[in-house]
Amino acid sequence: MLGSMAASRSPLSRLFTVLLAGVLAGLVLAVAALPGNLLLGLSARAALGSYAALPASLKTPATPQRSYLYANDGKTLLTTFYDVNRTDVPLADIAPVMRQAIVAAEDRRFYDHGGADLRGLARALVANVKGGGTEQGGSTLTMQYVRNVLKTDPTRTAEERAAATDPTVGRKIQEIRYASALDKNLGKDEILDRYLNIAYFGSGAYGIAAASQRYFGKPPAQLTLAESALLAGLVQSPDAYSPIDGDKNEALARRSYVLDSMVATNAITAAQAAQAKTEPLTLHPTAQPNGCTAVAQGHDDWGFFCDYLRQWWRSQPAFGATVAEREQALRSGGYTVITTLDPKIQATAQQQATKVYGYDNKRALPIAAVQPGTGQVLAMAVNRHYSLADNPAGQANHPNTVNPLISGGASVDGYQAGSTFKLFTMLAALESGRTLSTGFDAPAKLPTRYAAEGPGSCDGRWCPANANPDWMDGYRMMWDGFGRSVNTYFVWLAEQVGQDKVVEMAQRLGITLRADSDAAFAKNNAANWGSFTLGVAATTPLDLANAYATVAAEGTYCTPVPVVSVKDASGATVPVGQPSCKRVLYPDVARAATDAARCPVGQQSAFGQCNGGTATGVNGILDGRPVAGKTGSSEQNSTETFVGFTPQVAVAGIAANPDDPADSVGSAVQTKVIDAVARVIATAVKGQPEKAFAAPSKKLAGDPHRPVERPTVPQTPQNQDEDRLSPLERWLNRRG
Description:
alpha+beta, Penicillin binding protein transpeptidase fold, five-stranded antiparallel beta sheet, peptidoglycan synthesis, 21 strands, penicillin binding, Lysozyme-like_dom_sf
């Protein structure tokens, strides 16, 4: 109870009243007859409160507040986080009639007393000792504020918080002293502001901002006289008077009482009060969302991005020394978070994901969109409801799940992305000094040096094959080898470069090997991971989109980030969320890889060497706008992948069965995945200026008419030390 003392009191409370009456018995009769000025002086002298000795929470309130998450437009509310539904607002943003109503309801002499109203206290004591009716409280707004700060102060122990409401004479006298000290050092408006932001109005709403939204669905600046009177009447007994959870008739009766009190304080006229009393009780209850599973109705797809942000938040030292402290900060720190989520891109991604597979389909199409040069995550969609609701029998993760199907983590290692990993082989080759015109007569099958047994082997060696020999076999360079996705060309190229260099390149661009078996192979036997270039390692759409975004940004890798800005409850900007970027590729190497990546999507390289692609329809969807990308089909079409990019956005989608990797999605879905990703890109770039890709140097392109196959450089004691540095590291060292 934040208002006057409850109408019905326990025996212990009655005993407290008698004890306090005894302590102040000598004051009662005298106080009743004292003139106002003398009474105010007595109040100040009796309290003798020292502001310096006040608990820190009374001088600087540490009240928990709700945190808000908005989309990147700063307007679209995704969800909120809170333990206590409270948001502080300045007094200027509270309707004047609401301020008048709370004073009239709880403390008519608020502007006249010194924090502790001895006249009101004496009157209440006399009435309570005499008995015969409803007991009176005598607590001022300032005293109520003291009590409620101390009983909710998160820096105090549970015992100390409980003591703030103990029915003892000592506690009441301390409350009077604290209130007097506050009154002498804070203005009345400041005290009123603090009170209105901490008072409990019932139905889970703490503070006037939460109460105004909870009951009437509006900010407190827009409250009417009748609405203000109703809210002011709730604080005396919030649970009993709440028109949502309590007695509506009692709420209306309290509203009338407050209106009459406002007339008595000359805040309104009797005619205004009479008119307000005739107004019907019209509520617009608004339940404030709390957490990722409570995002706006119809937008539960936002939950996956929300969960990704929450995991990011838990890793940021700026919000606390431990994960628990950071989690608590999110739920009580009153932060305003502008996220990177773009509502339009997200809507298209969700529409496309569910167009390929419905919510009830066991297969899924997780899609992620990332902004090159910043790492901002623009969209995360999948044909699942982010929900803790039960699924039908036998359906583990559909239609409902809270697993990170798009970003990975927890139990989600990811999915094989097939030939999209050929990008890393091409980059490693270009970085080693090979050119785009590096040629090889790619056979239908390529015997390798890696030992293997079974259907994919040739005389005891791993022997990868081309998926479409008639279209893929023959003399290839990086351009058409990438455009036509020629397996044997890239396995050969990876052997020339070194498989360990290819694995390192993928990790350098942000591919996280979450599967234990993948991580172990990369650590202990990367040089012999011959199939890595064919995308056998598990990855996620987010990792893959960001890796390709690095190439789109001409070799600048940026750590994925889900926020644009974060402000604390005071409005100060928290130094988190800024792009964290570093150069990981030569710009010319990235440009060369992009030039080859124009081939798969039906566009032409700067050197005119594209002669076929696996996703040529993308060019039409983007209306000829510069775009690049790569398809990927894993073995037996267990997954189908497409990742595309422009200078402004990179988008990846992987069709898979998250619960059963053995369930092949089939090749027929590839065109749908390509179409879905391309349409997300189209939405992302709509209205943005068209940007062209920079062409690579002729040196790195090489001479397509005189291709040169470069032999592997043998390792000798003389060059081993130098080779420990990558070409990029040596280049960066030269640049200082």
